[in-house]
Design a protein that fits this description.
By secondary structure, this protein is an alpha+beta fold. The chain has helices spanning 18-37, 51-54, 61-65, 83-93, 139-155, 167-177, 183-191, 193-208, 212-222, 228-238, 242-260, 326-335, 359-371, 385-395, 405-410, 428-437, and strands at 41-42, 48-50, 68-71, 74-78, 101-110, 122-131, 160-166, 268-270, 284-290, 300-305, 319-325, 349-353, 376-378, 399-403, 413-417, 423-426. The chain is elongated. 37% of the residues are buried. The structure holds one RNA strand.
RNA sequence: GUGGAUGUGGCGCAGUUGGUUAGCGCGUCAGGUUGUGGCCCUGAAGGCCGUGGGUUCGAGUCCCAUCAUCCACCCCA
């Protein structure tokens, strides 16, 4: 007996069985279709990049998690997100692009961090970004949220809410408070508020060294509630710092325009605890949650950054974008039984020739159905009809067409609807019409 | 990087204070029905009980080590 190699894949990497993969592709397709509807063009950058390019900006955590290795004389790394490659791409192809440049990219990224629920080392991200040359109108911030809103409407996985904020409000407010060096840590803590609750947030803030007067003001700030309009009004009354006020104005404009672009009131909510990654967001920031499934975490986040490609070019390239963590989203939808994973086939029809004598008739029928645009599979293996039907049943194909001696002679098939059990003798053309009508 | 769990046919699990041939459900295959699936019945295939060492007359079970996986934290998509 020869020694077999155990079939296995790396920790944190995943692959799906057909039923799940079909469901996954359907979601991916809907996202892509919606992005295109908003005028985003496709982009596909290399998986592997020069380390010096990918790591131009990175520090700390990112650098620890990146897959990086030596290949001959090149120091290379797997991309850990789609934004950094986009920066490089825009800086590199600047003269050949038209601005504002709107692109979407749906592909895999890699991070060698420790995996956990819904977090993998190889994962899909679905990004949209708009990049401006020198400047980018604030309206694009609203448009990105409108696209995200449209995606989640299209996905039809329940109510969702885009929680939106503006970093200028936060930094204006915190500088007014005189937090100084504490600002970054305080922001990180505020960001965790919905997860850990008000009490723990207080504790952590005190631990950080926030004094009582500051704590009181922070408290008043995060407790601002009501409708979006009311929140804006409350913010205006709270602080008159210049940057802060500018942020409030921006937030108001973005929310208003988003509604004009079709985002429903219930799907967008100002949330002052939204902070996002500290690295590059400078204005609008947002996270998206599925109502009733807030424990999923944010299923789509993004925001505005002033200077995308500063590490690659002197040109100023401000942008705004959003990213759906598709692998995570899919894992959670599946865990919660929120997607159909019954169908194991993409075929609408399965042809069952009784025996080898009927192969020519089956071939002809298959060709006719496929030409008519019907996804068609043929069961060529020599098994009992019972086994063939069982296969049809298991994979969930809707229509089965039996082709025996008599059918072949008449140029017909016995078309069976597997759901209703209805069976009729029809021509290939009639069959394609019945299937397409279904 | 830190902490916590779990490893038994393809998948999900049971296996009592260590004690004969390691079970069950699902799935797979074949048959009961030689041209009809789902339900039912019968049968079959499929296990170095994660790996290595130790204790013992005897280890799936106890001890040590190791590997792997999962969960949570950090951070983030």
């Amino acid at each position: 007996m020869e020694q077999k190699v155990t079939p296995k894949i790396l920790q944190g990497f995943i692959e799906l069985l057909p039923a799940d993969q079909i469901a996954f592709e359907e979601i991916k397709g809907k996202i892509e279709k919606t992005y295109r509807r908003f005028g985003f063009v496709p982009l596909d950058t290399p998986t592997l990049e020069y380390s010096e390019v990918l790591l131009a900006k990175a520090g700390g955590e990112t650098e620890k998690q990146i897959y990086r290795f030596q290949h001959h004389d090149s120091d290379v790394a797997l991309r850990f997100d789609l934004t950094v490659p986009l920066s490089r791409y825009v800086a590199q192809h600047y003269p050949d692009l038209s601005f504002p440049f709107k692109r979407y990219q749906i592909s895999k990224s890699f991070r060698g961090e420790r995996p956990q629920k819904g977090r993998y080392r190889e994962f899909y991200q679905c990004d949209i970004d708009v990049i401006g040359a020198e400047e980018l109108d604030l309206s694009y911030d609203a448009e990105v949220t409108a696209a995200i809103s449209a995606v989640f409407c299209e996905l039809d996985i329940g109510e969702f809410v885009i929680r939106i904020n503006n970093r200028k409000i936060l930094s204006g407010f915190f500088s007014e408070l005189g937090l100084g060096d504490l600002t970054a840590d305080v922001m990180r803590t505020i960001d965790k508020l919905p997860k850990i609750g008000l009490e723990k947030t207080h504790e952590e803030l005190i631990k950080l060294g926030v004094n009582e007067a500051q704590l009181e003001k922070i408290d008043a700030f995060v407790k601002i509630s009501g409708s979006n309009k009311e929140k804006i009004a409350a913010l205006r009354a709270l602080c008159s710092n210049e940057k802060f006020t500018f942020g409030v104005d921006e937030l108001e404009k973005v929310v208003n325009l988003a509604h004009g672009l079709g985002v429903k009131e219930k799907n967008m909510e100002i949330d002052l605890s939204i902070v996002r990654g500290l690295d590059y967001y400078t204005g609008t920031v947002y996270e998206t949650f599925i109502v009733g499934h807030e424990n999923f975490g944010s299923v789509c986040s993004g925001g505005r950054y002033d200077d995308l490609a500063g590490f690659y070019t002197d040109k100023k390239l401000p942008g705004v974008g959003a990213s759906i963590g598709l692998s995570r989203l899919f894992a959670q939808l599946k865990d919660n039984g929120m997607i159909n994973t019954e169908t194991k086939t993409v075929s609408k029809a399965l042809l069952l020739p009784m025996g080898e004598e009927q192969f020519p008739a089956a071939a002809k029928t298959a060709e006719a159905l496929r030409s008519a645009g019907v996804e068609t599979d043929v069961y060529w293996s020599a098994k009992s009809l019972k086994a063939k039907f069982k296969y049809a049943d298991r994979c969930g194909v809707k229509f089965v067409a039996v082709i025996g001696e008599s059918e072949a002679a008449e140029g017909k098939v016995s078309l069976r609807n597997m759901t209703t059990g209805e069976q009729t003798s029809v021509s290939a053309e009639q069959a394609s019409q019945i299937i397409k009508k279904d």
